[in-house]
Prior knowledge:
The complex is a heterodimer.
Chain A: H1 16-44, H2 54-57, H3 60-85, H4 89-119, H5 128-161, H6 165-197
Helix pairs in contact in A: 1-5, 1-6, 3-4, 3-6, 4-5, 5-6
Chain B: H1 3-7, H2 18-40, H3 46-67, H4 77-109
Helix pairs in contact in B: 2-3
Amino acid sequence: xxxxxxxxxxxxxxxxxxxxxxxxxxxxxxxxxxxxxxxxxxxxxxxxxxxxxxxxxxxxxxxxxxxxxxxxxxxxxxxxxxxxxxxxxxxxxxxxxxxxxxxxxxxxxxxxxxxxxxxxxxxxxxxxxxxxxxxxxxxxxxxxxxxxxxxxxxxxxxxxxxxxxxxxxxxxxxxxxxxxxxxxxxxxxxxxxxxxxx
Amino acid sequence: xxxxxxxxxxxxxxxxxxxxxxxxxxxxxxxxxxxxxxxxxxxxxxxxxxxxxxxxxxxxxxxxxxxxxxxxxxxxxxxxxxxxxxxxxxxxxxxxxxxxxxxxxxxxxx
Lengths: 198, 110
């Protein structure tokens, strides 16, 4: 299926666009997964079983802080990729490290938020609304955490092997994954938090 | 940034540039702060609020897809754009259909 006449001086790269396409299809399936969780939340989000409404439980400034961390990390990942294209291992690792710290900050903030909710008695056991909240937001946070683990591996690989073709390809996959998670977060903060407050 | 290094990596999108990421960041920040500002300050009516933050979310989606993910209509990018559009068709059916069904169930079983 290596299609057309690729005027490539490096035939090793012929399958790259196909490989990235494959990963992109995985991202699309992940998108469908999140869509179903959003649908469940849309249906159940008001079923709070006469407990507190989400509006009473969330802090918009806090969520704005989380959003800034994640958005910044998506941007700095782009800077890391620019370093990769310039074959600068140092620049790539530096910006990946920044991205990692920003992403970790997001996760820590989210874990704190979950712990507070749980400690106050607002756990996922309590109502359908909270179940769907924790499932949706928690699934996103889990994806981010796994992305961080992957990112740590990639930083290690970059340091050890430099900006080789396979590593660049993997960094492209991770980039797709990371940008995708920020996009999902746009909808999480809009639909769960902002609409929760209206 | 030399074009040569950008071309040796054809990943189905145009060469990534710093400008693209900066524009994406600026737009995302703009849309995010606008949305949070509208809600936190109760500027609009409820209905108008729902519509405007939805529109802002979709706008930010496009900004990030175009400027961060670099999804566009080049001959290579088109292969990636196609499943993207298809996915949103599926998502539309899934989410819209679920909401429709659950709304009807709720109405009919009340």
